[in-house]
Amino acid sequence: MDCVDGSHRRRRRAFTFVSGAFVVAIVSAAVAWSSGNAAFGSPVALERAPVYQLPPGHVALASVNSVQGPVVIMLHRIRYLGKVALCMSEANGGATSQSCANYPLGPKSGQNIGNNPVWWTTYVGACTQHHFQVISGVVLRAGLTAWLHSPAGVSQMPAATVPKGFGVAGRLVYALIATSPDSVSLRDANGRTVYTAPVEPLTGIPTVHCAGSGGSSSTQSTAIALGPGGHTIP
Hints:
Blueprint: E1 3-4, H1 8-12, E2 16-18, E3 22-24, E4 26-27, H2 43-48, E5 51-66, E6 69-80, E7 83-92, E8 95-102, E9 118-125, E10 132-139, E11 145-150, E12 153-156, E13 159-160, E14 172-177, E15 182-187, E16 193-199, E17 224-225, E18 232-233
Parallel strand pairs: 1-4
Antiparallel strand pairs: 2-3, 5-6, 6-7, 7-8, 9-10, 10-14, 11-12, 11-15, 13-14, 15-16, 17-18
């Protein structure tokens, strides 16, 4: 996940890893850079290659109300360095978090999806008194439902239908998280749990992009852990 910055030179210096799970990445408005640029190639190529927007264009699928106003979740497709990628973004006013994964979505997408049935991105609101995050996930298998496990109990996550032009089997699921500990799970049509993952708590998040004491949103990335191996989705 990435945040927008107007300076191209600053973008290349913005990749920072904290405690192995927290990434701050700056992107251009046209394309998201994956962690370590693994999805698209070398830094030199990244600077020079054009980005082509593909049908069906930018599509807003959901909106989540937060203390900073609505966070809009969108999908769009690009062709970059000869590869076609699906991009998922969360926008709150002028702040945007975005990540892109190469097709076919899975182990070779450059986003640590592996063989998991869902691809996650996260928008972090770090400039409010109480931090929050909006998690959104593209479910990669048909017939799965997503569930949020929080201190308040277990509830089914909202879901939006993904247009066929994006080439994914499942729906977009999302949730606002302002508590801890939290986790997510996916269930099949028979109610059997096929996937679980803890949500990283919002502790120790820097506010270097916040304006003043009140500030606007800082779109910094967190992660959803994927089990005992310490594998995370950025």
